[in-house]
DNA sequence: CGGGTCAATCCGGGAG
DNA sequence: CTCCCGGATTGACCCG
């Protein structure tokens, strides 16, 4: 069973499956591709496939046999084109032609979070800092205070505890964060606006280039390092969530297949019992089942002999891996008669690969 | 008080 | 060597 699993935030989920890479949402999509064996079995239970013994064969199979691709989009159920627009006041810096936030003020049509209008002094300080070092520098007390001021304004609408804390307390807390007493690490909580803005940015670009990082840091009045850390942690959280989702899905998939396997095993036993109780059918010639590679339906050829079927089998397997020829015989090799009805049912039996090989041979 | 969350740090590995 | 990233971990803060 070929099973490829991809996390949506990877730019190329399946390097070997071109069709599976076409995901509607490359940011947060969840894509599972079930390869040859499983995909066929899940479609029509049309028998076993023995053509993916190694990775190379699975590559061939995957390219010729469309995998069953499941796109689960747990975090963004609506495709991006149908998603509601981001908060009106938020505009990702690199989505517009202008990069600087000052230029945004000249855009009267767009309602963006214009930090320069809100806190011109802070933006000036950040721009002077360039990479944010001035903000974190112990000597830059002015920058620290300005950052505290802006954070307080960003914090409008935060939880009540922070309101109860009061501006003075938080200011002193934040101020002590940047002073020379760097040994104690103070907890910094990003405001809701900052987090929302970063989230929107993350949806557009899970990874940042330095230019984007700087622009975002300027716009949010954060250090570039903070933006970088936030994106790193955000990617980690996304991956963790995806892992949980993948685990749950694969668990359900495994349970379903186990139940199906159990049911079909039981069915197979009943058919064997039926076959042994009706020796009349033992006189019939062997039946060859050939699977059509295009429609994946089983075509019965009751007149073909076993040797011809075997020859056709080898020929088909060398030319097309999607063609599966199954010659079913009884356990006693001298009596090659088969039960047509049973064969049509047996062709749908989903068995473990080893057992399927045993039956086919 | 314990558990959860999350920003921040440390460290190793890969790419240029 | 530098830069960036992922993974693991730490520590502050929040909440029931």
From TrEMBL:
Domain (Homeobox): residue spans on this chain: 181-241
Entry's Gene Ontology cellular component terms: nucleus
InterPro entries: HD, HD-ZIP_Homeobox_LZ_Class_II, Homeobox_CS, Homeodomain-like_sf, Leu_zip_homeo
PROSITE patterns reported in the protein's UniProt record: HOMEOBOX_1, HOMEOBOX_2
Residue ranges: DNA binding: 183-242
Biased amino acid composition, Basic and acidic residues: 163-176
Sample GO molecular function, one term: DNA-binding transcription factor activity, RNA polymerase II-specific
Pfam families associated with the record: HALZ, Homeodomain
Segments for region (Disordered): 42-93, 163-190, 306-334
Predominant location: nucleus
Record's subcellular location: Nucleus
Low complexity bias: start-end ranges: 62-81
Keywords associated with the record: Coiled coil, DNA-binding, Homeobox, Nucleus, Transcription, Transcription regulation
Residue runs in coiled coils: 247-277
Recorded family membership: Belongs to the HD-ZIP homeobox family. Class II subfamily.
PANTHER family on file: HOMEOBOX-LEUCINE ZIPPER PROTEIN HAT14
Annotated protein name in UniProt: Homeobox associated leucine zipper protein
Source organism of this protein record: Quillaja saponaria (Soap bark tree)
Source taxonomy: Eukaryota, Viridiplantae, Streptophyta, Embryophyta, Tracheophyta
């Amino acid at each position: 069973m070929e099973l490829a699993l991809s996390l949506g935030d990877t730019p190329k989920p399946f390097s070997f499956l071109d069709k599976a890479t076409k995901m509607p949402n490359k940011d947060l999509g969840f894509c599972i591709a079930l390869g040859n064996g499983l995909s066929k079995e899940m479609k029509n239970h049309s028998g076993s496939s023995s053509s993916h013994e190694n990775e190379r064969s699975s590559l061939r199979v995957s390219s010729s046999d469309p995998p069953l691709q499941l796109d689960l989009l747990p975090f963004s159920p609506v495709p991006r084109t149908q998603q509601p627009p981001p908060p009106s006041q938020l505009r990702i810096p690199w989505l517009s032609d202008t990069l600087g936030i000052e230029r945004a003020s000249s855009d009267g049509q767009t309602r963006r979070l214009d930090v320069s209008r809100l806190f011109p002094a802070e933006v000036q300080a950040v721009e002077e800092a360039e990479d944010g070092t001035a903000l974190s520098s112990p000597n830059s007390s002015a920058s620290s205070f300005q950052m505290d001021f802006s954070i307080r304004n960003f914090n409008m609408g935060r939880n009540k505890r922070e309101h109860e804390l009061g501006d003075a307390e938080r200011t002193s807390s934040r101020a002590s964060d940047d002073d020379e007493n760097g040994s104690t690490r103070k907890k910094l909580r990003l405001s809701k606006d900052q987090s929302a803005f970063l989230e929107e940015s993350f949806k557009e670009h899970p990874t940042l280039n330095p230019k984007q990082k700087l622009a975002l840091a300027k716009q949010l009045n954060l250090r570039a390092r903070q933006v970088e850390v936030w994106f790193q942690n955000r990617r980690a959280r996304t991956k963790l969530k995806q892992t949980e989702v993948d685990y749950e899905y694969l668990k359900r998939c495994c349970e379903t297949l186990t139940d199906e396997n159990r049911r079909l095993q039981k069915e197979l036993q009943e058919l064997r019992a039926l076959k042994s109780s009706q020796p009349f059918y033992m006189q019939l010639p062997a039946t060859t089942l050939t699977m059509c590679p295009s429609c994946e339906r089983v075509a019965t050829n009751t007149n073909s002999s076993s040797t011809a079927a075997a020859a056709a089998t080898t020929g088909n397997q060398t030319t097309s891996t999607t063609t599966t020829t199954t010659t079913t015989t009884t356990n006693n090799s001298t009596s090659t008669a088969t039960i047509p009805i049973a064969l049509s049912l047996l062709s749908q039996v989903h068995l473990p690969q080893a057992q399927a090989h045993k039956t086919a041979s």
